[in-house]
Fold this protein.
Amino acid sequence: MKWSLDRILPGHKEDKESQKNGVMLVTFAEPKHVVAEQFRTVRTNIEFAGAALDTCQVVMFTSSAMSEGKSTVSANVAVTWAQAGKKVLLIDADLRRPTVHATFRTLNIDGVTTVLTGKNKANEVTEKTFVDNLSIITSGPVPPNPSELLNSKRMGLLLDWARENYDIIVLDAPPVLAVSDVQVLVPKTDGVVVVANMGKTLKADLQRTVEVLKLANAKILGSVERVKAKHGDRGYGYGYGYGYQDQK
């Protein structure tokens, strides 16, 4: 299943901007805006897609390459789950180019990496946010060996702890084709959502991304496609707007 999201302004500096300033949480800033409603529709479609699974508690968002919108989509969908009354934990599993700390205006001193290296326990680095029902674990300091840490026993224990304490766990993961981090995370998750930027993401890269995920035995819940909006649509926040269209 594919879900389409319209993107209003070109964002050649998007990756650097999201690292510095975080992503726009339209679902929090204007929950009645049509954009927020479209994210809720994406959330609902993920739930429908996950209904066939034994469990769909840990959902990972990824993409083929950088700057395709996975952090924007994962954060906003996490907010919509929290607004629906779910107890949600958003984990920044992109240990190379993290954004969650910037989005939620917090420091990134401790987080996933300090848990995985044994410095902290999970509950010590979990932070409540300005969104009711939504907590986060930031990435922590950028390590020299992200893949090894994500593939460690401690990462499995971190997610086991999260499953016991939260209804939904959202992982903002690195791009599939850039590094091997996602492949080692797949066995620890219940489902994967792929975010693509139509007009930027190469079809061959998207096909290769799906192949890599299938080789890792990932349960792909669907894809979120971001496409340029029609001329004349107004921008929002950093210049993003979203439209929804279900595609067979």
About this structure: Residues 4-13, 230-248 have pLDDT under 50 and may be disordered.
